[in-house]
TrEMBL record:
Names of the cofactor(s): Zn(2+); Fe(3+); Fe(2+)
Family per similarity comment: Belongs to the metallo-beta-lactamase superfamily. Glyoxalase II family.
Domain Metallo-beta-lactamase residue range list: 11-174
Enzyme Commission no: 3.1.2.6
A Gene Ontology molecular function term of the record: metal ion binding
Enzyme class: hydrolase
Record organism: Camellia sinensis (Tea plant)
Name of the protein described by the UniProt record: hydroxyacylglutathione hydrolase
Key words of the record: Hydrolase, Metal-binding, Zinc
Metal-binding listed as a keyword: yes
Amino acid sequence: MKIIHVPCLEDNYSYIIIDETTKEAAVVDPVEPEKVLRVCDENCVHLKFVLTTHHHWDHAGGNEKIKELVPGIKVYGGSLDNVKGSTNKLENGDKLSLGTDIQILALHTPSHTKGHISYYLTGKDEENPAVFTGDTLFVAGCGKFFEGTAEQMYQSLCVTLGSLPKPTRVYCGHEYTVKNLQFALTVEPENAKIAQKLSWAQHQRQAGLPTVPSTIEEELETNPFMRVDLPEIQAKVGCKSPIEAMREIRQRKDNWRG
């Protein structure tokens, strides 16, 4: 399984997923379709379908255009999200395959939007899996609770995504890592892993390189929103439950001007 970042708009990522045996490909959130198709051509792959994480324009806004450019292409999106250009609606637990080696599992991860879907991919046995988390899970952060609640985000992050294998690579929808880690340090100033990752992320960005992917293991160590089960995190933010802490940390992040 090969995954190619396609930087789009100001700070978005689309991703091209390639089954290297068959040269079949899928794309996650192709908001700039012409750019995506150019990268597909450069890599000599055949684009089979689109995986849409959620209905916001900076993720689903290229779907209609890509359908014009690739007649007959399938566009997948969550059944509860009114995804523009969707041809196939997905429910939690639905499965797809790409080429001969890649299996895709749709995971309903609501809160940012009602029907947000994350896509969990497994390839050959020795390969680490990958998950495409759109705007639910960012590196060291999470999306705003636009259409949902702290309870839903807790379930999405800490239960659904947090229970994936620790080596799972996390591919999110935006390059927000430096700011997210700077904020994470305000919650846990003594967390050395956050400080180390912030230093690394700043060097990556100065070199014009992405900070994505992370891993589920790294997120459990550095992402305050995925650490709300820890009594010490709850105590730091003056809360007595994981969901209270999730709500409080999100409010702090929303008001933070770092």
